[in-house]
Design a protein that fits this description.
Layout: E1 2-8, E2 11-17, E3 22-25, H1 37-46, E4 63-68, H2 76-89, E5 97-102, H3 120-125, E6 128-130, E7 139-144, E8 150-154, H4 155-158, E9 162-168, E10 171-172, E11 176-177, H5 182-185, H6 191-198, H7 215-227, E12 231-237, E13 243-249, H8 251-266, E14 267-270, E15 274-279, H9 290-301, E16 304-313, H10 323-328, H11 335-345, H12 351-361, E17 365-369, H13 374-379, H14 388-397, E18 404-408, E19 415-418
Parallel strand pairs: 3-18, 4-5, 4-9, 5-6, 9-12, 14-19, 15-16, 15-18, 16-17
Antiparallel strand pairs: 1-2, 7-8, 10-11, 12-13
Length: 419
């Protein structure tokens, strides 16, 4: 028997497969971390892409920095200190440099959780705020994109003289890639803005790893133009969430330079579809809740034949991650009902997770292993299992002699490219 590991929460799971089974581990070759990541950050800030140096911010009275919330593995402890130090050297006092946690439509983070994503010495020195997409009084209307998205954005971010985004460039299931202006254009947007943009996920060109010509991503870029983001500071991480590359500069230039680097780390060739895929979103925070873990299912389904099986292992210590998603599912008992109701009511953030799960689980046989209550997971139509190895054994027994098994240990950050 061959032994394999899957990231799971802040730990990992071990399982076994018979030696005679044809198995492919769908993971890029291991890429080492940068020897001196702080030096990479400093160099990127000294040589920004497509813009004048940070000296152009001299004379600014205020700076607002959009940072990601706890659902993203952004190394703020390495990215923020050089940036904040450089801004202070330009004469901008700490009390005029605000950090805005860009939650998008995720739950608002309470102040006691800020230390989960920001070093305490930064919290004590700089003002930190959390965005609330539902608080209309905190938003400003800027207009409408060419695709009809009304642009409502955080007022506090907009009123700053200098607007910066900090984040990662990594695969995204329908935006193509995260990074660039997205931390502000979605992370600091109003709920109606996110709803309208994310409704484009049903467009066939809104897909994983597809940036140019992706309508959802192009809409994000247009929202970013309305906002006027002056600088993006983005990292590219390896499978251990360690910094490999850092880029800074005009957001589109950062994306243009960063996406090929991200592909080198995240993209894996796959010869044909699999009968069984055993997957993990990638451990914490990729499996912090269903809202995030669903992305692992979406990526696994891309390489699973119709009628094949996906076994997804995701800890989900924070449950579904969306009360609106839970409420929407209370009277739903089948994937067909999900499709019907979603079509009748139109796109809404939260319930869109039900649609995304049903879209894939109706095509493949989903089995879901987590720390969640079994009845709760069953009510969300996740087909929960209580023993990972037993489920794998049964799935293997059902394979034909030519059956193929794929293992996606970090599904949410992997671009499987089927040939």
């Amino acid at each position: 028997m061959a032994e394999f590991d899957l990231p799971y929460g802040k730990s990992h799971l071990t399982f076994h497969l018979p030696d005679e089974i044809a198995v492919q581990v769908i993971a890029p070759p291991e890429v080492g971390a940068a020897e001196n990541p702080l030096s990479l950050v400093e160099t990127a800030l000294e040589q920004p892409l497509g813009v004048a140096g940070l000296d152009s911010f001299i004379g600014a009275r205020s700076v607002a920095i959009a940072i990601n919330d706890k659902t993203r593995p952004v190394p703020h402890d390495l990215l923020l200190p050089p940036l904040l130090r450089r801004l202070e050297e330009l004469g901008i006092p700490p009390d005029r440099i605000s950090l805005l946690i860009a939650t998008g439509t995720h739950p608002v983070m309470p102040a006691e959780e800020y230390s989960q994503i920001i070093p305490m010495e930064i919290i004590q020195r700089y003002p930190v705020f959390c965005h609330d997409a539902k608080d209309q009084s905190s938003l400003v209307f800027l207009g409408q994109t060419s695709r009809g998205t009304p642009v409502w954005v955080n007022r506090q971010y907009l009123k700053a003289d200098v607007r910066i985004v900090v984040g990662n460039i990594e695969p995204h299931q329908f935006q193509g890639f995260s990074g660039g202006v997205k931390s502000a254009a979605i992370g600091l947007a109003g709920q109606i803005t996110v709803n309208c943009n994310h409704a484009m996920m049903t467009d066939p060109n809104s897909r994983l790893g597809f940036y140019e010509g992706n309508p959802a991503r192009e809409d994000v870029e247009e929202i970013g133009q309305y906002i006027g983001v002056h600088l993006a500071l983005n990292a590219i991480l390896n499978e251990h969430k360690q910094i490999v590359h850092v880029l800074a500069g005009e957001p589109r230039q950062v994306m243009k330079a960063g996406i090929p680097l991200a592909r080198q780390i995240c993209q894996v060739p796959v010869e044909g579809l699999f009968d069984l895929v055993i997957a993990s979103p990638g451990g914490h925070p990729k499996d912090i809740n269903i809202y995030q873990a669903q992305k692992g299912l979406a990526h696994a389904a891309l390489v699973t034949r119709p009628g094949g099986t996906v076994i997804l292992a995701a800890a989900c210590p924070e449950g579904s991650g969306s009360q609106s998603y839970e409420a929407w599912m209370r009277d739903i008992h089948s994937y067909e009902q999900v499709f019907t109701r979603f079509q009748q009511e139109g796109y809404r953030v939260g319930p869109h997770k039900a649609f995304q799960i049903a879209r894939d689980a109706a095509r493949v046989r989903l089995q879901f292993f987590s720390d969640m209550d079994m009845d709760f997971a069953r009510a969300l139509l996740l087909n929960p299992i209580n023993n990972l190895q037993s489920a794998i054994d049964q799935a293997v027994q059902a394979l034909t002699r030519t059956g193929r098994v794929g293992i996606l240990p970090r599904a949410s950050s992997t671009i499987p490219q089927v040939h």
